[in-house]
Write a structure and sequence with these properties.
It comes from Skermanella cutis. InterPro entries: SAM-dependent_MTases_sf (IPR029063), UbiE/COQ5_MeTrFase (IPR004033), UbiE/COQ5_MeTrFase_CS (IPR023576). Keywords: Menaquinone biosynthesis, Methyltransferase, S-adenosyl-L-methionine, Transferase, Ubiquinone biosynthesis. This is Ubiquinone/menaquinone biosynthesis C-methyltransferase UbiE. With 243 residues, this protein is an alpha/beta fold. The protein has one domain: 3-Layer(aba) Sandwich (Rossmann fold). It has 9 helices and 7 strands, in the order αααβαβαββαβαααββ. Strands 3-2-1-4-5-7-6 form a 7-stranded mixed β-sheet, sandwiched between helices. Strand 1, helix 4 and strand 2 form a beta-alpha-beta unit. Helix 1 packs across helix 8 and helix 3 crosses helix 4. It binds S-adenosylmethionine. S-adenosylmethionine binds next to helix 1 and helix 4.
């Protein structure tokens, strides 16, 4: 059952996504913890485990926001490695850069303002591409997937961590109620922006389910595409090889 579900219009999606992340940037990390009860941290750890970072690797973290995936990647690499955080929203990038300074991460990470659909990177230039809670915000998913393939070196890997379809019926009901009642209220209380969190719920609802996304990633030319459900399918990690 869906409460007050409204379609996101693709023609107005990009300016709306911009406005949403402009509005939440300064509270983004706090809200992430509050809304997910900290679970997003476990999901990000799962992603890093799958990537198995090593010294010398180059990561491109698209829709990288405030840098979570890149910081974790560099820490796990256990030696010099390179991360590019690319996000369309400058405010998110600026918050990320401040966080990097606070953490003492002064080298190994570069911050780029850019669109997932037209990445400002050379073809075949990175070993790993990640997009965490980003693909559902992109207007043309297939254009973003084609760009992912273009920038990856042959033998490189693609990873997408994103909200997905809950596979356990009992959990589905609880999750729906939480999404349409608690979440927007939390958004109102902490970020003063109910609409932004309403958008979050709607964008999750409209995003392709696990199997459909496998099909889209395969259609973009990736090999051995698979997924792993996290917390009963609330989120999933999709991966594929750039052949
Ligand atoms: N990856 C981070 C994380 O996991 O905490 C941030 C995720 S945040 C929910 C989504 C991010 O996607 C926002 O920072 C937003 O600006 C960015 N974004 C939206 N559309 C984008 C696009 N077309 N290209 C690049 N980034 C985009």
């Amino acid at each position: 059952r869906w409460f007050g579900f409204r379609e996101v219009d693709p023609r107005t999606k990009a300016p709306m996504v911009r406005q949403v992340f402009d509005s939440v940037a300064t509270n983004y990390d706090l809200m992430n913890d509050l809304m997910s009860g900290g679970i997003h941290r476990l999901w990000k750890s799962d992603l890093i485990e799958l990537i198995r970072p090593r010294p010398g690797m180059t990561l491109l973290d698209v829709a990288g926001g405030t840098g979570d995936i890149s910081f974790r990647f560099l820490e796990a690499a256990g030696g010099p490695a390179q991360a590019f955080v690319c996000d369309i929203n400058e405010k998110m990038i600026l918050v990320g850069r401040d966080r990097a300074v606070d953490r003492g991460v002064l080298s190994g990470v570069d911050w780029i303002v850019g669109d997932a659909e037209t990445l400002p990177l050379k073809s075949r230039s990175v070993d790993v591409y990640t997009i965490a809670f980003g693909l559902r915000n992109v207007t043309r998913i297939d254009a973003a997937l084609a760009e992912a393939r273009r920038v990856l070196r042959p033998g490189g890997r693609f990873f997408c961590l994103e909200f997905s379809r809950v596979v356990l019926p009992v959990l589905r009901d609880v999750y729906d109620r939480y999404s349409f009642t608690v979440l927007p209220r939390l958004g109102q209380m902490v970020a003063g922006d109910r609409e932004a969190y309403q958008y979050l719920v709607e964008s999750i609802r409209q995003f392709p389910d696990q199997r459909s996304l496998v099909g889209r990633i395969e259609a973009a030319g990736f090999g051995q595409v698979r997924y792993r459900n996290l917390t009963g399918g609330i989120a999933a990690i999709h991966s594929g090889w750039r052949l």
